[in-house]
Amino acid sequence: MLIRVPKKSEIKEHELTPQSVYHSRRDILKKLGIMTATLPFAAQSQANIFDIFSSGEDNAEPATVFQRSPLITNSSPYGSGLSLTPESKVLTYNNFYEFGTGKGDPVENSQSFRVDPWKLEVTGLVNNPITLSYDDLLKQFPLEERLYRMRCVEAWSMNVPWIGFSLAALLKAADPLGSAKYVAFETLHDPKQMPGQASQFVGGGIDYPYVEGLRLDEAMNPLTLLSVGLYGQTLAPQNGAPVRLVVPWKYGFKSIKSIVKIHLLESQPATTWNLLARHEYGFYANVNPQVDHPRWSQGSERFIGEGSIFSSRRQPTLMFNGYEDEVASLYKGMDLRSSY
Ligand SMILES: Nc1nc2c(c(=O)[nH]1)N[C@H]1C(S)=C(S)[C@@H](COP(=O)(O)O)O[C@H]1N2
Ligand SMILES: [Mo]
User: I want to staple 212 with a disulfide (CB 3.0 to 4.6 A). Which of 66, 185, 217, 291 is the partner?
Assistant: First the structure.
C-alpha cells in the first residue's frame, strides 16, 4: 500500500485518462446519484479525479451502474453511537487493486462485475464441506446490520454500516476438525473481469488471486463478519460483492473482498500483502497505535466523514481499533511488536 500507486498529484485527471473513460466515470457518479454541486471527496483527495467543473461535451455512451438490491436485516447492538461515513464516500474511495490502484479506480472499473451466479466453497479440515450459491449467501444465515470502524493501514478510517453474518456461523456449519488451526481466504481470479489481474501495472504488482488468512480462534470471534451488504443494500462490486470479510480490529487489508474459497488448514497460510512486503505487513495486522508502520506513524488517522477532505478530522488510533474488550484475550502472552 502506498507502494506502487502512481503519483497523480500534479496532473489533472483529463490529462492522463482517455476522454471516453473520463466521461464514463462522470456518468457512473451521476447514475449513483452522487454527482452533487459540491466537489466530491475523491476529487479533492486525488488531484481532481472527478473534475466535474471542466467544460466540454459529455457525449460518451451511458455508463452501466451495478444494481444493488435492498436487504432486510435484524439490527444489532454493534456500533450504536458511532457517526457514519456517508455512503457516497464508502462507494467511491476504495482499495481493490484487482480494479486498479487509485482510490477512484474500483468504482469506475467494476460496474459490470458479475456476482450471480457465484460459488463460495468451504473446504479443507472440516467434516462437512459447504458450497454456497449467490442466493445462499443472502438467505442461509440471518442477516444483521453492524456499524463497525474500519481502519486502513494507510492511516485513514471510516465507520461503515455493514450487513452480514458471523463467519463463525458458517464455520460451525462446516464443522472444523480438531486439527484445523487456521482459515485461508481467496478472492475470485478472473482477469477478464478484473483488469488488475490482467496487467501487472494496473494491479499494482500483486500476484493474484488475493489471499488472506486468520487464526481459527480469530475467525470464530463473534466480531468477524462475512458481509454481503452495506447501507441497507447488497454490496457494490467496489466494496467486494457479493461477499467479503470484515475484521474490524485489524487493518483493512485483512478484509478480503469477493471471496470464492474458505479453506481450513493446520499451518499459517500465506497472505498477499505479507508476500509483497513482509517487513511492512504482517500476518496479524492488528490495529495498534503503538506499533508504527516502517514508513509512517500509526498513532493517529484521518477519519473520513461528512464534508471535504480539508475538514476531515485527525483522530487518535485506538488499540485494536476500539475492540480491545472483545479481542485482547486472543493475543494474551504474545509480543504484538514482533507479531505485527
Ligand atoms: N481482494 C481484495 N481485497 C481487498 C483489497 C484488495 O485490493 N483486493 N484491499 C483491502 C484494503 S487495503 C482495504 S482498506 C479494504 C477496503 O475496503 P473498502 O474499499 O470496501 O472500504 O479492502 C481490502 N480488501
Ligand atoms: Mo487498506
Answer: 185
Chain centroid to CA 159: how far? 12
Q: What is the 3-state secondary structure (H, E, C) of 60-111?
A: CCCCCCCCCCECCCEECCCCCCCCCCCHHHHHHCCCCHHHCCCCCHHHHHCC
The answer to whether the pTM exceeds 0.70 is yes
**Which residue has its alpha carbon closest to ligand 1 atom 4?**
256
Chain center to CA of 11: 27
Mean pLDDT, residues 133-147: 97
**Closest ligand to the CA of 208:** 1
Query: By alpha-carbon position, which residue is closest to atom 15 of ligand 1?
Result: 252
Confidence of residue 28 (pLDDT cuts 50, 70, 90): confident
- 325 contact partners, CB below 8 Å, separation of at least 6: none
Closest by alpha carbon to 218, among 96, 317, 64, 327? 327
Tallying the residues shown for the chain, one arrives at 340
